């Protein structure tokens, strides 16, 4: 059995069509079709069926895919092992949370590019929950995000706790957010509902039985900060994203908790995934550029 046919199958499913798979694999569409037909004959099952103008996986094909993903992971691990002493090359897929990408990763990426110029990096700015799911589904090789619960299927390295801070415009009149059972006529400016620090803020307000006037959703941290500085509302963000504005007086801190609330930054990959030289090099660049949480310096399971 030609194992390359399983790589072809995985690529067809990922790309969504035979034609796009042929472009990804740099071969003709007839070669893709031949590989799938041979695979169906060897396995004695129908993998795809035509519905309308689209080729979709059959129920048997869907059941086959977890084993296909595992096999292609093993093949990639073998390939990477044979290239261990060679120059760093290949693809590296990384999912990163927006604030970490914007404020923590530029130095890491610059260093990695200098050390591994032939590695093709695919970066996606994603929600933390989406990153976790992408790691579990082998859609990314590495995830750099904030902890959103424990998952035994992921191998995680902690890069420390990141304090959260409630910020407002300097012209905003201080309001006691610690006093429960009240309505505060202010807008909360933040991004999507699944944002981990938004969830912490809103759950804390619910616990204190505090309501606010409205929520304004924006997708850019920089846009959020500019709106807050213009006194359009308040926001709850990682301190490192607003450190400069707090130091220069562009923003003021509003007391929100007796003990600083925080989130944990992680770098993670799937337990079953072979750590390629490119993955290891990227993790090493993170350790070199970012302060590692000493208490959790060992890999967590």
Distance between the termini: 36 Å
Residue share in helices?
40-55%
> What Rg do the Cα atoms give?
24 Å
Report on the biggest sheet.
7 strands, mixed
Model regions low in confidence, pLDDT < 50 over at least 5 residues: 294-301
Shape label: elongated
Q: H/E element string?
A: HHHEEHEHHEHEEEHEHEHEEH
The beta-strand count equals 11
Q: If helices are DSSP runs of H or I spanning 4 or more residues, what is the number of helices?
A: 11
Structure summary:
Helices cover 43% and strands 25% of the residues.
Task: Describe, in plain words, how this protein is organized in 3D.
By secondary structure, the protein is an alpha/beta fold. Helix content is 43%, strand content 25%. The chain is built from eleven helices and eleven strands. It has helices at residues 4-15, 18-25, 29-43, 59-82, 98-103, 106-115, 128-136, 196-208, 221-229, 239-248, 277-289; strands at residues 48-51, 54-57, 90-96, 119-125, 142-146, 154-168, 182-190, 210-217, 235-238, 252-254, 262-270. Strands 3, 4, 5, 6, 9, 10 and 11 form a seven-stranded mixed β-sheet that branches. A hairpin with a 2-residue loop joins β1 and β2. The longest helix is centred in the first third of the chain and has 24 residues, at 59-82. The radius of gyration is 24 Å and the shape is elongated. The protein starts with a helix and ends in a 12-residue tail after the last helix.
